[in-house]
Amino acid sequence: MTADDIEFDEALEKTRSKIYEAFCDDINTPGVINEVDEAIRKTNIYFDLKSKKVTLLEKAYRIISQPFEVMGLEYATSKSSSSAEAVLTAITKFRD
Question: What range does the domain containing 36 cover?
Answer without folding.
Answer: 3-95
